[in-house]
Amino acid sequence: MATTAQLFEEPFDADEYIERLAWRTPGGGSKGGAEAFDPKRLLDEFENHIEELKQLDERIQRRVEKLEHQCHREAKEFAHKVQDLQRSNQVAFQHFQELDEHISYVATKVCHLGDQLEGVNTPRQRAVEAQRLMTYFNEFLDGDLRSDVFNNPDKIKEAADIIQKLHLIAQELPFDRFADVKAKIASKYHDLERQLIQEFTAAQRRGEIGRMREVAAVLLHFKGYAHCVDVYIKQCQEGAYLRNDVFEDTAGLIQRVNKQVGEVFSSPETVMAKLIQNIFENKLQAHIKEKLDETRHSDVEQYLKNLYDLYTKTTALATKLTEFNLGSDKHTFLSKLIKSIFSSYLESYIDMEREYLRTRGAMILQRYYDSKNHQKRPIGTGSIQELKERFRQRTNLALGPSIDTHGETFLSPELVVNLLQETRHAFERCHRLSDPSDLPKNAFSIFLLLVDHLCVEHIDYALEIGLSAIPSSDAKNANLYFLDVVQQANSIFHLFDKQFNDQLMPLISSSPKLAECLHKKKEVIEQMEVKLDIGIDRTINCMVGQMKHILATEQKKTDFRPEDENNVMIQYTTVRDTRPPSPRSHAKQNKSANAKFKHIACSKVCAYVSRQVEHVRKSMDGKNVDTVLTELGVRFHRLIHEHLQQYSYSSMGGMLAICDVAEYRRCAKDFRVPLVLQLFDTLHALCNLLVVAPDNLKQVCSGEQLTNLDRNLLHAFVQLRVDYRSARLGRHFS
């Protein structure tokens, strides 16, 4: 059976079990083994093994039944034990409840007994305390303080407690009967109070925090406790202010004593608040008053700087002090301290600021004009001046004689920087020193002063002078400086606009004053733009007048009808070829000759126009360049167009006119304005009508560039030909 038991090892496999049993049986192996296969022997072995297995199964079954019976018996025994334990637990719980009720009953009795004992003991203690106080009171009544507590310096704490109580009792006694004893008690009260304060002072000097805490606790019930705090505040400031910066010294002092105050006093937040109040009302206020009063009437600029610096440092110090325990409403407390120091200065701040800016701005302006040896011309006001201004805007004519500024624009970048710098400082001071409710109003008043000094007194005055300096359109060799005024005024206004956005807008962005500021700014811009437009328009008129003068003096009536066409080279400049083109060649062939020849008048006009175009580009920016160049180009084209219509043209003269117009067209390319170039392209096409063969005239008029033009205009150009009547060219337009 041991062998059989080995065959049942886990994991059990029936096939493997049979194979192993057969392998162990002699003659039960494979046919190729050492012994021959014996099936009868193997069958006997299987039968015997089956019997053994049956016996084994019976034995195991009996053992299982035995174990099951034993398990049932033990389960019944365990159930009986659990029932016994439950009954015992119920009995124990009942005993616990009875014990708890008994304990509660006893505790109630004990508490009641304690209350009774306390009710008896408290009057007894009071009686004992009263008897003790009466004994001490009797000593004061007799005038002989025999108790050791009053004579032993080591028992000053007990003496202080007794005398404090006696002092309270004495206050209730009638004065006529107990005046003497009340005086003695009061004297002893004040004497002990003085001794305690002296002891506290000595302990503070020695740095004995524990002793300071004990004495402060005793003094807490005395009237002199406040004096004790004052002594502490005074002593802790000794030697604390040795540097020149009182604000840094204050911050360092508060940082040092904060921990000590918490260890010594029972209400440290009250002591810290009183210390800070003492420093603000004495050290800081004296320092600030000294700094401000010495410059308030003698140097307003330095006074405003000092006020700004001192107020900034004080608020920064207050911000640092909020880190400490000063009570529940420390921000309001510190704000009141700052207001108490600066209120008298802040009330008059904005008036002094405005007066300083008004005086400073006028001085900067006058200093600049003095450096130019210029006496400011009064700009008229009132109905007459307004009438002149309206008339000038409508007619664009100069009123009164022009003045010679010798090229001076009367605009100074240095002056502008100084004004903007002063205003920037004023805005910073206004932001810091103004009450939040008055901040937008004060900032707006500063802005108005900037507008008055910079925009009116400087820029607007320069524009007026510039307008007066613009010569009339028929002036000869006129120097045009107004574009320089435009350039500098534009640069200055960019700086003005930047300060408006960076400095002023944050101060007024959430107030009704924003609309007023924007309206004022818009009004100033519109006023200056009107004068700039007038000046630029009159400057363009002068440019056109100068071109007209060049053409009138340099262009001759015979330039386009040369008497000797072979000697025509004398009348114009040669650029490339030395021989003029054939007068009978086709208009298309003329194109190659257009750039070869031009009259002296044309050369001078083109040179002048190129200089003015460059001047405009340097003086303007953005879209203003194209706008001004468009206007100049249109007027330039109109002048040339009208100028060409004053002459009659031979074939050679027409070719010369085409050459001139080609040069004007090349000059027009410098404008970089499509409209101007298109106008000169059309004019060039019109000039081809002066040289085209009569038979081809109708075809040319129907060309791409001329087909959309008014036929009267085409006819007018054809009438300029000397052969107009002889060749009967008018029939083409009938």
From TrEMBL:
<dbReference type="InterPro" id="IPR009976">
    <property type="entry name" value="Sec10-like"/>
</dbReference>
<dbReference type="GO" id="GO:0045494">
    <property type="term" value="P:photoreceptor cell maintenance"/>
</dbReference>
<dbReference type="GO" id="GO:0000145">
    <property type="term" value="C:exocyst"/>
</dbReference>
<keyword id="KW-0268">Exocytosis</keyword>
<protein>
    <recommendedName>
        <fullName>Exocyst complex component 5</fullName>
    </recommendedName>
</protein>
<dbReference type="GO" id="GO:0006893">
    <property type="term" value="P:Golgi to plasma membrane transport"/>
</dbReference>
<dbReference type="Pfam" id="PF20667">
    <property type="entry name" value="Sec10_N"/>
</dbReference>
<comment type="similarity">
    <text>Belongs to the SEC10 family.</text>
</comment>
<dbReference type="GO" id="GO:0003151">
    <property type="term" value="P:outflow tract morphogenesis"/>
</dbReference>
<feature type="domain" description="Exocyst complex component Sec10 N-terminal">
    <location>
        <begin position="39"/>
        <end position="148"/>
    </location>
</feature>
<dbReference type="GO" id="GO:0035845">
    <property type="term" value="P:photoreceptor cell outer segment organization"/>
</dbReference>
<dbReference type="GO" id="GO:0006887">
    <property type="term" value="P:exocytosis"/>
</dbReference>
<feature type="coiled-coil region">
    <location>
        <begin position="43"/>
        <end position="70"/>
    </location>
</feature>
<dbReference type="InterPro" id="IPR048625">
    <property type="entry name" value="Sec10_N"/>
</dbReference>
<dbReference type="GO" id="GO:0060271">
    <property type="term" value="P:cilium assembly"/>
</dbReference>
<dbReference type="InterPro" id="IPR048627">
    <property type="entry name" value="Sec10_HB"/>
</dbReference>
<dbReference type="GO" id="GO:0010842">
    <property type="term" value="P:retina layer formation"/>
</dbReference>
<dbReference type="GO" id="GO:0048793">
    <property type="term" value="P:pronephros development"/>
</dbReference>
<dbReference type="Pfam" id="PF07393">
    <property type="entry name" value="Sec10_HB"/>
</dbReference>
<keyword id="KW-0813">Transport</keyword>
<keyword id="KW-0175">Coiled coil</keyword>
<dbReference type="GO" id="GO:0032402">
    <property type="term" value="P:melanosome transport"/>
</dbReference>
<dbReference type="GO" id="GO:0007368">
    <property type="term" value="P:determination of left/right symmetry"/>
</dbReference>
<dbReference type="GO" id="GO:0003406">
    <property type="term" value="P:retinal pigment epithelium development"/>
</dbReference>
<feature type="domain" description="Exocyst complex component Sec10-like alpha-helical bundle">
    <location>
        <begin position="158"/>
        <end position="732"/>
    </location>
</feature>
